[in-house]
Amino acid sequence: MKLNKITDYILTLFDTTDNKEFHNESGVTFDSKKDIKRIGYCTNLTLHTIEEAKDRNIDLLITHHDAWDFVYGLKEACNEKLKEYQIAHYYNHLPLDDCEFGTNNSLVSKLGLKIIEKSHLEDGFYCGRIAEFENEISMKELVNRLEILLEEPVRAWQFNDKNIKRVGIVCGGGGLSPDVKEAIDKSCDVYITGEKVLYTIEYAEFKKIELDYRKPYLY
């Protein structure tokens, strides 16, 4: 199949394509001009994931994240490798965070939560969700469920002894204190994110909200 046929189909899966930022947050970074037979997918575009794609005879690598400019020099190095190995690359970032089959909704569904509202608006895309359990659970049970789903350890900070009903989730880079504040302002009992920094932990402790840090990105 031609790459443009695949990307045209991908566009039909989203209802946010009229957002002017959609094509700044997704798209083809390299087109090998070859027919696509085998597709690989992962979270991050890195030199490691490109090497694995080569070893697995991948024609098109689809990722959630591009190689970002602030990881200085990585984008240029990745583009060189994609060209060298003639592997096409497509990524989809914020639209995938926001969509019905994306990162946040998938975790909400797997945890058995019900979405109350979308949250954490960025460039017209909602990067988070506020959701609730039908019945309260303990922090220990929540961590256990996350570790079973992710098949890896979860870092958790418990700053009170309450059970959990309302959950704030930002699966990706929701590691800044304003991200935690939005969950607090929406009366969440716990905040789950894919990234954290020192000040996130300090703020969560100060406001007595539980904090789970899930590491969804494999390097």
Chain-wise SSE layout:
Elements lengths: L2 H10 L13 E5 L8 E6 L2 H9 L4 E6 L8 H12 L2 E5 L1 H5 L4 H9 L2 E9 L2 E13 L1 H12 L4 E3 L6 E7 L6 H9 L4 E4 L4 H10 L2 E4 L6
Helix pairs in contact: 2-3, 7-8
Strand content: 25-35%
Q: Write out the CATH superfamily name of the largest domain.
A: NIF3 (NGG1p interacting factor 3)-like
User: How many runs of DSSP E, i.e. beta strands?
Assistant: 10
Order of helices and strands: HEEHEHEHHEEHEEHEHE
Oligomeric organization of the protein chains: single chain
Report how far the terminal alpha carbons are from each other: 29 Å
CATH fold annotation of the largest domain: Udp-n-acetylmuramoylalanyl-d-glutamate--2,6- Diaminopimelate Ligase, Chain: A, domain 1
Shape: elongated
Number of helices: 8
**Can you tell me the number of structural domains?**
2
**Helical content, roughly?**
25-40%
Mean pLDDT: 93
The low-confidence parts are: none
Derived structural class: alpha/beta
Give a quick account of the main beta sheet: strands, pairing sense, barrel closure: 6 strands, mixed
Query: What is the radius of gyration computed over CA atoms, rounded to a whole number of angstroms?
Result: 19 Å
CATH architecture descriptor of the largest domain: 3-Layer(aba) Sandwich
Strand order of the largest sheet: 5-6-8-9-10-7
- CATH class category name of the largest domain: Alpha Beta
